Amino acid sequence: MAFPFPLTVNPAGHLVIGGVDALELAEQFGTPLYVVDEQVVRDRCRRYREALEPVGGLAVYAAKAFWTGGMAQVVRSEGLGADVSSEAEWRLAMLAGLDASRLVLHGNNKSPAELRLAAEGGVGRIVVDSLWELDELERVAASSGARKVPVLLRLLPDIRAGAHGSIQTGHRHSKFGIPIEGGQAREAVRRCLGSARLDLRGYHVHIGSQILSLEPYRQAARVVAGFAIEMARQLDAPCYEVDMGGGLGVRYVAGDEPPAIEDLIGALAETLEGAFTAAGMEMPLLIVEPGRSIIAEAGVTLYRVGAIKRLAGGEIVCAVDGGMSDNPRVALYQARYTAVLARDPYGTPAEAVEIAGRLCESGDVLVDGAALPEVRPGDVVALLTTGAYHHSMASNYNGLPKPAVVTVREGQARLWVRRERFEDQYACDALVQTLGANRSL
């Protein structure tokens, strides 16, 4: 069976994650279970940091991909900043001790409360997504008496990149960013320069996610540099920083071949420096926002097999104790995953099976056609590359609790997030608050 990357097994032949037997993790912490190999996360953080050091750049981890207190502490300890998109993500970053000046606030419709929090809290950069938001930020900054607020203008470069239409964010029909075409972006620059409250630091672009080629990044860098140079000549607008976003792809199935982190940074730096140098301008600070490429391959989700059915057409359906509530990406983006049997990941495949979830939806299928050894009820199935956009997008559909999150490193397991309980799910429900979660039913 082909895997996207090598797997580690112990003498018993069991899957090992971060030095810990996957079967032992399932037994100790229950299933479904999100498992994060902390060393993989740290290695990816360091690769970004070290690749950016020669150009004096900055990596800010995209919190939306996976954000827990433990993850925030790892990000801080590895010297990265963070890209946050809400008050909750911001507050967790602050609790974990991140420096507010190394935070970037995102969102295409930030609330006045979020803008005020960022302005007064010393956020490093606010990525402004529209002319309306620019006016709103001006109003908030004026009413709060905050310092001059650092701004990056998010440009819409009209570039299509990414594995699925729903995660392509740089094309002309995207809800994100200020269109260059038609003059809106130029108007945003003009308003920033005329404001006593806003400090235009530069420009931002994010073209999509799960990108497996460097060329779209080069295209985006050329567009951003070209616009910055034009604004410098026409309006005398400074460009101290260029944030190129994230989106670098990862290995989900055999055949996925994403560019190396070092090659991505090299391509961006070379393209930007070439353009700015040719225009007689200094190279701006390069910022990137990796999320998926740091956390995705560090994550494995463990499920317990229950019912196994052979259908009239010969299909074998193996139902597990999770599904689209803990992994909505298959239903949303037709995402593909590699599944292995934890007790025998390198075993000879018997028949292709459908790994189905337990949710009340026919579309609740995690893997269609998984090549596994003979599966039995009670087996533990592991889905690889599930670190990104699983925990952060999980729901309580059908009343299922969100899984626990365990981090593993050097043979030790630590609980980062405990499994949800009934009282957690219904903590805001008026009946539960009135009668009490522990009342006998």
Automatic annotation (TrEMBL):
Query: Which positions are annotated as binding substrate?
Result: R292, R329, Y333, E361, Y389
Cited Pfam families: Orn_Arg_deC_N, Orn_DAP_Arg_deC
Q: Which GO terms describe its molecular function?
A: diaminopimelate decarboxylase activity
Q: What's the superkingdom here? A: Bacteria
Instruction: Please name the SUPFAM superfamilies in this protein's record.
Output: Alanine racemase C-terminal domain-like, PLP-binding barrel
> Required co-factor?
pyridoxal 5'-phosphate
Which top EC class is named for this enzyme in its record? lyase
Reactions listed under catalytic activity: meso-2,6-diaminopimelate + H(+) = L-lysine + CO2
Q: Which Gene3D superfamilies match?
A: Alanine racemase, Lyase, Ornithine Decarboxylase, Chain A, domain 1
InterPro entries named among the record's database cross-references: Ala_racemase/Decarboxylase_C (IPR009006), DAP_deCOOHase_LysA (IPR002986), De-COase2_C (IPR022643), De-COase2_CS (IPR022657), De-COase2_N (IPR022644), De-COase2_pyr-phos_BS (IPR022653), Orn/DAP/Arg_de-COase (IPR000183), PLP-binding_barrel (IPR029066)
Per UniProt, residues of the Orn/DAP/Arg decarboxylase 2 C-terminal domain are: 34-387
Which UniProt keywords are listed?
A: Amino-acid biosynthesis, Decarboxylase, Lyase, Lysine biosynthesis, Pyridoxal phosphate
This entry's Enzyme Commission designation comes to 4.1.1.20
Positions carrying N6-(pyridoxal phosphate)lysine are K64
Residues the entry annotates as binding pyridoxal 5'-phosphate: G247, E289, P290, G291, R292, Y389
Annotated Orn/DAP/Arg decarboxylase 2 N-terminal domain residues? 41-296
Query: Pathway it belongs to?
Result: Amino-acid biosynthesis; L-lysine biosynthesis via DAP pathway; L-lysine from DL-2,6-diaminopimelate: step 1/1
* CDD domains per record: PLPDE_III_DapDC (cd06828)
Give the family from UniProt. Answer: Belongs to the Orn/Lys/Arg decarboxylase class-II family. LysA subfamily.
Function as written in the Swiss-Prot or TrEMBL entry: Specifically catalyzes the decarboxylation of meso-diaminopimelate (meso-DAP) to L-lysine.
Q: How does it assemble?
A: Homodimer.
HAMAP family listed in its UniProt record: LysA (MF_02120)
| Protein's name according to its UniProt entry | Diaminopimelate decarboxylase
